Amino acid sequence: MSTKPLxxxxxxxxxxxxxxxxxxxxxxxxxxxxxLGPQLTQAVxxxxxxxxxxxxxxxxxxxxxxxxxxxxxxxxxxxSAGEAAAAGGVTTVVSMPDTSPVLDDPxxxxxxxxxxxxxxxxxxxxxxxxTKGLKGEEMAEIGRLKEAxxxxxxxxxxxxxxxxxxxxTLTYARDFDxxxxxxxxxxxxxxxxxxxxxxxxxxxxxxxxxxEAETIMLERDMRLVRLTGGRYHAAMISCADSAEIVRSAxxxxxxxxxxxxxxxxxxxxxxxxxxxxxxxxxPPLRHEDDRQAMIExxxxxxxxxxxxxxxxxxxxxxxxxxxxxxxxxxxLETLLSAAMRLVHSxxxxxxxxxxxxxxxxxxxxxxxxxxxxxxxxxxLVLFDPDAPYVLDKRQLKSLSKNTPFDEARLEGQVTITxxxxxxxxxxxxx
Length: 430
Known about the structure:
430 residues
């Protein structure tokens, strides 16, 4: 339906596609960007929002979020995930197939598409299972699942250890131009490990997970991509050796991209401290040298996207001894604020950061969003990059509160989130 145009004026426009930063305005009409630039200071017959110099940028696109619905609505529903995403400036979320039932049937994919459209205030796009039942044994029906609305194919937190199965899925997906997203972690090498292998794990008396659990699986996948030519995205890498593997594959022209969790850019193994289970993640938090390597990989383009790895867990699964606690942390609402730490410490420029949070995910997924340009969807976030606050987990909109940033001092608060020209979050009215 046609609605009255809306002008954002006096904004700091940041376009991650071109890297340009301009002071000016942006006009939204009928759900798309109609005009923008320094010259745009007024518009006839339009509602006006004075941004007061705050940053106006494309809405964030999160390529990795676990949502409990269907099967685990006590953890997170599509509705609550949408509210959490909107509060964090995220306008599009890719949901993982680790649900009950698993998203390996076209009818279930269709249900998620319809349910998300009816209940979520942001775009939620389902990723379908790569193998049936997430068992890693038999390839899912990629063609039918894509037709039903699957945006990508992944086994979520599980790795496909059978190289022949992975080869077949890459080959089949290539013919449908489908994207394979893989969790690179060899479960046999992980074994009983619960955190990064090294001196700190020994001090805590916890079993370690070697970096090789990630790098061996990643190296195997690069060779299979070379063999098949299928489009491949490593869901998350976490160590320096993995960055070198991806860097080498890209230099050879392979159709490879990769992501990194905001947790692995902001935190290291020392943050686990006295067995803080909210920081028990998969892959585990690494050594500080690996964190620095991830930042450098983001700067040089080896790392394409930053994800929240939003994985809500209830209290019963987290209030346990560290070794027994479930992996995962919520992250949709803190994704932007935590990422702004890299900007405030002068490690990453704001346009480059937003590129990894919006434009590159859109490019990889084939979405028209992620850019400030005429005709693009009006999926936007207005935020104050310098606004300080202390995170109170009780105020999170997610149903689960397992955030690694509880009581952390953060900078950068979302003021307005807009999806398809409709304001879905407005801090000014809170």
